[in-house]
Amino acid sequence: MKEIEVNGARTAYLEQGSGDPVVLVHGLGGTATAIFKHLLAPLSERHHVVAYDLRGSGQSSVTPGPYTVELLADDLDALLAATGLDTVTLIGHSLGGGIVLEYAATRPDRVRAVVGIGAVTGLPEQGKEGMAARAETVESQGMAAVAETVATNGLAASFREANPEEFRALISLIASSDPTGYAAQCRALVAMDVTERLPDVRCPVLLVCGERDQASPPAANAANAEVIPDVRLVEIADTAHIIPWERPDELLSELTGFL
After folding, report:
1. 8 A C-beta contact, residue 229 and residue 198
2. How many folded domains does the chain comprise?
């Protein structure tokens, strides 16, 4: 991973491959190399791939809050400028999906296409309350207090049972998050509402959701698809929120066709 100072934060990122630029943006509790571990090499065979750790995650710096989706989109913009990338395809998972849709809506001339994987564009009231409570929990008790529950909800039961080592790996990934950065990202999700800007996304969009996703349920994706002008919606059966781990082959097939 390389490091660069952009928008007041130290950002860790990697670059590999050549071709049209594709930028990968992870979500809450993830890192670039962990969440996209199955996608990086295949995408790099045809594309110039950039993946980075969000502010507050992984090897990037933890800066004082509050974080907002607008700030995180500004971070992305600063990284693209610093690495000399102009018009790009953006692929975002979870919170990262909300970030790339926000970016595409507000900077349409910079985006060729967008993929939202389990993209979260806003939370219902109950979800906001739960996310705010989670932020307080990790600040007071540490990441271990939520890691197993979050990992359990993030993976379909069938996947957890068939792949116990991957389930444990996700628990460890979440537990290794910095609680201050994680809490700040939780609060960014509480405040986030990208939904109202979705009609401004003019580039082609692919939304991929899991049938059993609780964070980005199929109904929410269907509602988002109704207001995005140029969109394709794909639902993957018996899959929860961590689609890049649960169904990498199906996801890659969809990505390849779309790109």
Report:
1. no
2. 1
- Domain range for 220: 2-258
**Is pTM, for the whole model, over 0.85?**
yes
Question: Residue for token digits 């116990």?
Answer: 164
3-class secondary structure for the chain?
CEEEEECCEEEEEEEECCCEEEEEECCCCCCHHHHCCCCHHHHHCCEEEEEECCCCCCCCCCCCCCCCHHHHHHHHHHHHHHCCCCCEEEEEECHHHHHHHHHHHHCHHHEEEEEEECCCCECCHHHHHHHHHHHHHHHHHCHHHCHHHHHHHHCCHHHHHHCHHHHHHHHHHHHCCCHHHHHHHHHHHHHCECHHHHHHCCCCEEEEEECCCCCCCHHHHHHHHHHCCCEEEEEECCCCCCHHHHCHHHHHHHHHHHC
Check which CATH number belongs to the domain holding 49 and give it: 3.40.50.1820
Confidence of residue 88 (pLDDT cuts 50, 70, 90): very high
| Residue 251 near residue 117, CB atoms below 8 Å | yes
The tens digit of pLDDT for each residue in 196-249 reads: 999 999 999 999 999 999 999 999 999 999 999 999 999 999 999 999 999 999
User: What gap in Å lies between CA 9 and CA 61, rounded to an integer?
Assistant: 6
Q: At residue 232, what is the residue type?
A: R
29 Rama sector, left if φ>0, alpha if ψ -120 to 50, beta otherwise: left
What is the spatial order of strands in the sheet that 111-117 belongs to?
A: 2-6, 9-16, 47-52, 20-25, 88-93, 111-117, 205-210, 231-236
Per-residue tokens: 209 = 């959701």
- 82 Cβ partners below 8 Å, 6+ apart? 4, 6
